[in-house]
Design goal:
This protein has helices spanning about 20-35, 40-50, 85-95, 115-120, 125-145, 200-220, 235-245, 260-270, 310-320, 340-350, 365-375, and strands spanning about 60-65, 70-75, 105-110, 150-160, 165-175, 175-180, 185-190, 250-260, 280-285, 290-295, 300-310, 330-335, 390-395. With about 400 residues, it is α+β, with helices and mostly antiparallel strands. It has 2 domains: about 10-80 and about 375-395, no CATH class; about 100-275 and about 320-350, 3-Layer(aba) Sandwich (Replication Protein E1, Chain: A), CATH 3.40.1310. The strands form 4 sheets. Strands 8-3-5-4-12 form a 5-stranded antiparallel sheet. A 3-stranded antiparallel sheet has the order 2-1-13, with no helix packed on it. A 3-stranded antiparallel sheet has the order 9-10-11. The longest helix has 24 residues, at about 125-145.
Length: about 400
């Protein structure tokens, strides 16, 4: 089913002058000709190129006062498209709002060393799965041993830094509350919001679990070693590689705890459906060059600009295409899908809340748009500013037949 329309909240903010779609229109064909791309990359490029164009069809709107007409084309709904995430994000956050607990939340980030990037690029699903597994097992183990109960964990995969280079890490939001079953009766364990676990201790256990899982994947023949990773195919090359990773200090970063449910929603809204770069960060696309803005974390997030060749920019953008149907957001512990309904009810009751969360009714697209944009005139005619735009005809895929 196509998206309801192309009128997303971005259309009512400052419209970006440049878009990734324009980049693909100008240089995508040449890039495809010069590089051998997997079907998933070709699909993403094509979706972004035709998003909100007549290729996807849509509908024709007409003002009921002055007769002004405009076409409104459907969105591609591809999760890598810079124009198609706001409504999806809003619906996801709306669904999650009923699951939040009235406690502070911790924010912990787990990052794998950059030496693993070439291997991850050739084995995305396998390495990302290992990351989710090792992080969740690490946190759950610390919850059992250090707190005495089961944590609730929401994990979000990101694979980029501000310059679109590989930077594979998981953002985790964790309530300052654990659930313990005592003789079949659940009990709640509040956690001091000022401290969850030692990041140094987390780092060592995370490193061990990750590398153990990675070695098991290799032993079962589930890793490929093409191109730059071919040296890892030999037992000696693999052993040297693993030894070097054991010697490194892996990065686990704990940020200040969120104060409550609303701040968690704000955080999740920034991270859940983000893609590698937004159209608003593009400064120019001219003469085979792409200039974009970024925040330099090494200089207190100072805003800078970077210019890349179109070829290099597209290469970096496509680094972050996830495998088809891959779940970038996962839940563990008492938030795991298989136990969430039961355990969340227990948590809510232990915190003095109604055991059953409030029912969240899905809002129609127009209502969500109004909430996102703060505008009540989404249907107002842009020509006469008096009448309302009404759908008068459907536009088939490819547009109307000009013959």
């Amino acid at each position: 089913m196509s998206a309801p329309s192309g009128r997303t909240a971005e259309a009512h903010q400052r419209k970006p002058r440049w878009e990734v779609a324009e980049l693909f229109h100008r240089y995508g064909e040449e890039y495809r000709r010069l590089h051998r791309l997997p079907p998933s990359h070709l699909k993403v490029m094509r979706a972004i190129e035709i998003c909100r164009t007549k290729e996807l069809g849509g509908h024709l709107e007409q003002c009921d006062s002055c007769g002004y007409e405009r076409p409104v084309y459907n969105s591609c709904r591809n999760r890598h498209c810079p124009k198609c995430q706001m409504l999806t994000k809003a619906r996801w956050l709306e669904a999650r709002s009923s699951e939040l607990l009235p406690v502070p939340y911790f924010h912990v980030v787990f990052t794998i060393p950059h030496e693993l990037n070439p291997l991850a690029l050739c084995n995305k699903k396998r390495v990302y799965d290992v990351l989710f597994k090792s992080v969740s097992e690490t946190l759950l183990e610390f919850g059992t041993n250090n707190v005495g109960g089961t944590l609730g964990i929401t994990s979000i995969l990101h694979t980029w830094d501000q310059t679109l280079m590989d930077h594979i890490h998981l953002h985790c939001a964790i309530p300052a509350f654990a659930l313990r079953a005592t003789a079949g009766k659940p009990a709640g364990i509040p956690i001091n919001e000022k401290f969850l676990f030692s990041v140094k201790a987390l780092s060592k256990v995370f490193r061990g679990k990750f590398l153990t899982c990675l070695k098991e994947a290799r032993e079962k023949g589930k890793l490929a070693f093409p191109g730059r990773t071919v040296s890892l195919f030999s037992p000696m090359g693999w052993s040297t590689f693993i030894d070097s990773l054991y010697k490194k200090e892996w990065v686990v970063y704990a940020k200040q705890a969120f104060r409550g449910p609303q701040s968690v929603l704000d955080y999740l809204g920034r991270y859940t459906h983000r893609i590698a770069i937004s159209n608003h960060r593009l400064v120019s696309i001219e003469r085979g060059k792409v200039t974009f803005s970024y925040r330099d974390r090494k200089e207190e997030s100072k805003k800078k600009v970077m210019t890349l060749s179109s070829d290099e920019f597209i290469r970096r953008f496509l680094l972050h295409v996830v495998p088809p149907s891959y779940m970038r957001i996962r839940h563990f512990g008492f938030l795991a899908n298989r136990r969430k309904k039961r355990d969340l009810s227990r948590c809510r009751a232990l915190l003095g809340m109604s055991a059953e969360p409030p029912e969240i009714k899905e809002k129609p697209p127009d209502e969500l748009y109004r909430e996102l944009t703060g505008k009540d005139d989404l249907d107002r005619c842009p020509s006469c500013r008096q009448g309302s735009m009404r759908i008068v005809a459907e536009i088939p895929k490819g547009g109307f037949d000009s013959s």
